[in-house]
Amino acid sequence: MKSVLLVHGAWHGSWCWDLIVPRLEVLGINVVTIDLPFNGFDNDVLAVSELIDSIEDDLIVLGHSYGGMVISEATQAKANVKQLIYLCAILLKEGENVNGDEEKSRPSKIRIEVDEDLNSIVKKDAIIPAFYEDVAVDIAEKYLGKLRNFPINSISNGRGEAWKEIETTYVVCGKDSAIDPERQREMAELADSILEWDCGHSPFFSNPDILCSLLFESAKNSC
Hints:
Layout: E1 3-7, H1 21-26, E2 31-33, H2 41-53, E3 59-64, H3 67-74, E4 81-87, E5 112-114, E6 119-122, H4 124-132, H5 137-143, E7 150-151, E8 167-173, H6 181-188, E9 193-197, H7 203-206, H8 208-221
Parallel strand pairs: 1-2, 1-3, 3-4, 4-8, 8-9
Antiparallel strand pairs: 5-6, 6-7
Helix pairs in contact: 2-3
């Protein structure tokens, strides 16, 4: 049985896996999470890379949203990483524009405020529409105050192409209001296999069972 490493997206933290970790542990899966430092893309990559190096087990590595950019570089040349899962995540070729064809993309509901140091925070009235619109109200409200500042210059064009060497699955979230589902479908073409779920940007809160099922099957079956 492989271990699972979960890498969260922008503005979030390891708390976004609160409904996932105990479910997987009951199934006998070792789960590792991380709080990205959010002090620059290179440092986020380094944090994940060093964590992988500290783990002896074979790994399934999942990146959510911005976490996809991070794992594309952090998992390069890591022999113990057996599968990558991009959960409504940024999956790019080297140098590819993160926004794709903006004229074709549906506008994101993410609305941010940026300070003089280029740290951003999501406006409170945009959090649920962008991230949690299909999440139970009590769960969404529990986590509203946990979102963190995120340096907007961490998101750039594509860097790292670990997906070329590692088995890769992309999960499109068809009701996503943060990353246009059509853009997700374009990025998913780089993956070996594609799934599409009828959910918003945060299936770890809205439908944890389907995410756990995917991770459990991957941990059992990945070579």
